[in-house]
């Protein structure tokens, strides 16, 4: 498949609005002519020759490159994403993958290829299936994701009974240069009769076309059951959140069977499905089917990830036992439901400059004009802050109510813009002395002793217009003369004494860094403090610390020697006081207000999908409170969605928590399984990355890593059969047991305890008891004050990976994260198996019932390993650290 996220982001901008589908969707249709096929074949040969070119002599040895993993597969150079065509054949495992032969970011999508005898030691092979070009060198077909089957009966006719072919079923993503199928996606075939070394594209491609721009990622297997024996394909209609099933006898002609979805996680788009049977706890009399669906964005940790369903497949339809209900309200008292066509006593404060928004005159029934589909709300109405787009700002506040339950549950979506420390959601001045009467003079600035030069006229100053969030009259250099942004000159205040430590003020307008447009504090006639605007009409609070000039005489001077767009400033409400001014936030939040103070707050997840949030409000029982919804943001995802505020004695869990996830970390995506594996084992492999930041990871000649291959089984749990995962047993062959460190049971005192073993390629097996600790666990890839934390919080019963101080987190704003998962202790204990490999950690908790996978990018030489405990004493019951030998490089 493609960088689906790239496509999704081209289709959907950050405000949730749909872009031009004609420019973004993907492509396909029917047979090429023999002439076109001949041209394509020639170009295939050319591309294969290019792919086999040697690495430049100036390229560093891959083994010496920082962040190059030693256990996980990476291509020697260029970009790699999703695994494709995973198959075992003639004693070898074959891994194909999305590959850009020409660069380290997504593009030129083709299939790369590597092979291995043991799933660990991979040999990179020549480019397998390159993109297709027309006669003038334009790409007409990108090779997106798919699968490979061993056609042992030669049902396709591409081989012989004695020499059956490998057949690749992949998505043809037809570009805008394709003569008949521009911007379509359909399924095509290629075949190999030399163990996957060379491939021929079928002249009858595509073999399955739905005339869709988002039909992709075919995973094919041979079904043998009560319904018959035939090939089954699962693929996705990505934006519709549907898996579609087809059958075929020859891999060329396909008949529709059924489809599944939408269900469970439905944010972003669905991709890379996989359907397979597993025996529950190894019992062949108890077979269940697992349907894997990857999605992006919208995973439990944010961005890319994979969910799965457990159920039954009868050869035609998949029926899930694990699809979760979405419409049930928690029991309790509704304090805001929005289902009767009005806000029902809530006070909507819409934007003065955009009075239709953000809230409109009444609750929305779903999406509003210009917005992508809103999902997850319940009933006839909801709060939707997208009226007028992302630009309008405002607040929406409930009537007062008594907090009479332990929890306040509600649905929230929209922008992820929390209120940051030191900010305020309102526009409240700091306490102190209001200088210059806030410019609310009965006459002119000149009458009050101000000096105007240049284009500024007494009759036009102060101004009564321009600049949002001003408080009464203000200085506005756009309005202060007749030339608007062309006005030039200065506006200087009378003298005043600096009798306190701060001057807070509202400032808006243009931004200049050359001194031509600024507000100045003059002491002794010299500017000692300056401030300029942010190229915005919104005034926001700024603050000068003036404590060093306490007791001295000062003036304010507004300098405007700038012309052109944003060649003006707007100044208001200067306060001389002891407390710094708090800037107005850019938040999109829901807040619980008690005694005028924000005591609980929540924000969206940059998604048009609403999910449950729950506040523990026990401490406020009996108090009067209001709910205040705040939209202070005018940029991308600058809106909020909210619905169904319910006071309840039970906590509503996020729907995400109820779904079943392949992995709870940030970096486990496009996961699919190998076909034809020995002994019927089900082995899965994922791309260790996330489209939120995947094209920015700080590697060098390559970008993209595969996870360790994992064997998956089904085991019975209190919720029903669920997946259990472990690294394939071949991984044990890498252990350097002679260097193993083993520790006996011991208490972990508060703080960190460095172990007498270090390493950045290790397996750690540990069992803990919580004791009195508020959190405990391991620190790996440590260097000085930095490390990656792998731990557990008993109060929330969650295991976590904390990579917020793990080395290089600043290469992308979405990278630093704490990723966690619900994990129940077993007999009061936590068991962890951790694989550390230079730039990643894979965590298997409670024998693989829960996994977390994250990339990290530690400082060079970061190899220390520690135990930690916080808030009390925990205990490590057993601990083994085993260095692992290289599998790659």
What would you say this structure looks like, in words?
Helix content is 4%, strand content 42%. It is mostly beta strands and 889 residues long. The strands form eleven sheets. Strands 46, 47, 49, 54, 55, 56 and 58 form a seven-stranded antiparallel sheet that branches. Strands 5, 6, 7, 8, 9 and 10 form a six-stranded antiparallel sheet that branches. The longest helix is centred in the first third of the chain and has 18 residues, at 34-51. It is globular and about 105 Å long. The model is unreliable at 1-57 (pLDDT under 50).
At a glance:
With 889 residues, the protein is mainly beta.
Helix/strand class:
mainly beta
The helicity comes to: under 10%
Low-confidence stretches: 1-57
What's the number of extended β-strand segments? 58
Mean pLDDT: 92
Rounded to the nearest angstrom, the distance between the terminal CA atoms is: 27 Å
Count of separate DSSP helical elements:
4
The global form is globular
Radius of gyration: 31 Å
**Which band does the percent of strand residues land in?**
35-45%
What characterizes the major β-sheet? 7 strands, antiparallel
Task: Based on the model shown, name its key terms.
globular; mainly beta; 4 helices; disordered N terminus; 4% helix; seven-stranded antiparallel sheet; 889 residues; six-stranded antiparallel sheet
Topology:
Elements: H1 4-11, H2 21-24, H3 34-51, E1 78-89, E2 92-100, E3 110-116, E4 122-124, E5 132-133, E6 139-150, E7 166-174, E8 185-192, E9 200-201, E10 208-212, E11 215-225, E12 228-237, E13 242-248, E14 255-260, E15 269-279, E16 287-296, E17 305-313, E18 318-320, E19 333-336, E20 347-349, E21 383-384, E22 394-397, E23 401-402, E24 407-414, E25 433-434, E26 451-452, E27 475-476, E28 489-492, E29 496-497, E30 502-509, E31 517-523, E32 526-531, E33 536-545, E34 553-560, E35 569-577, E36 588-594, E37 597-603, E38 607-616, E39 624-631, E40 640-648, H4 655-658, E41 669-673, E42 683-687, E43 702-703, E44 710-717, E45 720-727, E46 741-743, E47 746-748, E48 751-758, E49 761-769, E50 775-783, E51 786-793, E52 798-802, E53 818-822, E54 830-837, E55 840-845, E56 850-855, E57 864-870, E58 874-883
Parallel strand pairs: 1-43
Antiparallel strand pairs: 1-2, 2-3, 3-4, 5-6, 6-7, 7-8, 8-9, 8-10, 11-12, 12-13, 13-14, 15-16, 16-17, 17-18, 19-40, 20-22, 21-40, 22-39, 23-39, 24-38, 24-40, 25-35, 26-28, 27-35, 28-34, 29-34, 30-33, 30-35, 31-32, 31-34, 36-37, 36-39, 41-42, 42-44, 44-45, 46-58, 47-58, 48-57, 49-54, 49-58, ...
